[in-house]
């Protein structure tokens, strides 16, 4: 199929670039997220978003980002920040069948059963893409995680070949936004309430790929977005204990990466495959997958990515009780991490900071039976973790409890386990819950200790009255 001609190049947003100053895109994105928290907004800003703004691909931010930017730069208008006015962007309304394909500023609203529309019809109406972003934001702020995951689905159906409708930047952006929203929810609430609701966005993303009729630049974004979405869904399956499902989703992402020649996506798929293999008790496969990921990632010029992949290899080597190999991989990971962030770091790595480095090293020492060192690193992981990553705080606190009880400190282990149990009121992760169940089992012989008895009583109470599936607090 002959691709459609490339759209004209965007006009760079030089005003916004000047505001970034000497900060890297990743550092500036972090400052945007901090500013959002200051005013109660929630945006999943990353280096890629900043790059798209500066290139002019984003002509006008959605309402949430506009409020954050106005907070960061008081007194400045959208025009002062280098953006087009919202009215001028909205002016590119969709045209009817006689006018050709709709402008990319609008997204179709699917009916109850999304799919190709008959020729000459566009579904239930037209919604401005920026209004759509605001509707999604409200769903995430006011609704439960399950409702928000449904809202995160790309609001598009696969266009009919007869309709003449073109898959464009709006559809690619919808897939990318679904990935970001699902990741934000997972960080805050864990996988259990989300996984069942991800079939819709994933199938919609691959339906867009099958539709064809897009430009080369849109094709690259759709392949990358669909692959990243498959990885996100795979991770939700992994964290909720559905390991065969996770393996299938990661394989789908890997196939998408190979078809599109996307090295970054391929490295990500191998990275998660290594993590899954380690958790599934296949350490040799974990090592092979991590090493494959590193070979691919050498082309990407991201020391932080190579650091994470070295940690994945270290985890597999620890599972093989290869202490020397594990220590070498850990040293390599720390050396690479010390080189700092850079513009080439993938956007999905926003979770990978010093806390994650410490937590993954703690897991290695735990697998090697080095309890004192495991406790030391697990404590650092808990203390250094960004409050946004509630699930990871619960995970590292649970790992700390496991290492403490194995190291002969049942009272301290029980105290940590109580804290983790409290976090599970916000986080629904079958993986973390099973870890706490194991900790409770090991602690039962120490039940005469007051702290241990308190934890065991709380653990039994929560086991007797589990939270209904899919329920979480407000996002």
From TrEMBL:
UniProt region (Disordered), positions on chain: 87-123
Gene3D superfamilies reported for this sequence: Tetratricopeptide repeat domain
Compositionally biased tracts (Pro residues): 99-117
Protein name, UniProt field: C1 regulatory protein
Species this protein is from: Streptomyces hygroscopicus
């Amino acid at each position: 199929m002959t691709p459609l001609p490339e759209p004209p190049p965007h006009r760079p947003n030089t005003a916004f670039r000047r505001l970034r100053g000497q900060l890297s895109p990743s550092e500036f994105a972090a400052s945007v997220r901090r500013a959002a928290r200051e005013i109660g907004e929630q945006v999943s800003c990353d280096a890629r978003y900043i790059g798209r703004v500066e290139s002019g691909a984003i002509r006008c931010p959605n309402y949430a980002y506009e409020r954050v930017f106005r907070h960061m730069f008081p007194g400045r208008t959208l025009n002062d920040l280098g953006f087009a006015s919202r009215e001028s962007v909205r002016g590119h309304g969709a045209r009817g069948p006689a006018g050709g394909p709709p402008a990319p500023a609008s997204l179709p609203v699917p009916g109850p059963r999304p799919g190709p529309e008959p020729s000459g019809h566009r579904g239930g109406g037209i919604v401005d893409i920026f209004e759509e972003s605001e509707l999604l934001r409200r769903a995430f702020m006011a609704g439960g995680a399950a409702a928000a995951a449904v809202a995160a689905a790309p609001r598009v159906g696969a266009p009919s070949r007869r309709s003449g409708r073109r898959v464009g930047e709006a559809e690619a952006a919808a897939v990318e936004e679904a990935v970001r929203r699902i990741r934000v929810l997972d960080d805050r609430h864990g996988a259990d309430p989300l996984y069942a609701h991800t079939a819709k966005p994933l199938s919609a993303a691959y339906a867009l790929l099958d539709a064809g009729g897009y430009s080369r630049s849109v094709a690259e974004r759709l392949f990358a977005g669909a692959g990243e979405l498959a990885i996100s869904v795979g991770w939700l399956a992994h964290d909720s204990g559905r390991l065969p499902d996770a393996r299938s989703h990661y394989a789908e992402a890997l196939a998408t990466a190979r078809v599109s020649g996307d090295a970054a996506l391929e490295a990500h798929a191998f990275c998660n495959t290594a993590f899954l293999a380690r958790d599934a008790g296949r350490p040799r496969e974990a090592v092979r997958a991590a090493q494959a990921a590193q070979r691919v990632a050498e082309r990407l010029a991201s020391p932080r990515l190579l650091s994470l992949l070295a940690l994945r290899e270290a985890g597999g080597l620890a599972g093989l009780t290869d202490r020397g190999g594990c220590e070498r991989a850990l040293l390599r990971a720390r050396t690479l991490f010390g080189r700092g962030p850079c513009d080439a770091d993938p956007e999905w790595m926003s979770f990978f900071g010093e806390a994650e480095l410490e937590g993954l090293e703690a897991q290695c020492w735990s697998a090697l039976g080095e309890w004192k060192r495991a406790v030391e690193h697990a404590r650092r992981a808990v203390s250094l973790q960004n409050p946004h990553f509630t699930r990871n705080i619960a995970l590292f606190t649970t790992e700390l409890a496991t290492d403490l009880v194995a190291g002969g400190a049942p009272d301290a282990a029980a105290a940590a386990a109580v804290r983790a149990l409290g976090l599970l009121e916000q986080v629904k992760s079958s993986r973390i819950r099973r870890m706490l169940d194991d900790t409770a089992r090991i602690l039962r012989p120490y039940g005469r200790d007051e702290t241990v008895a308190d934890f065991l009583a709380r653990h039994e109470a929560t086991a007797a009255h589990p939270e209904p599936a899919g329920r979480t607090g407000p996002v």
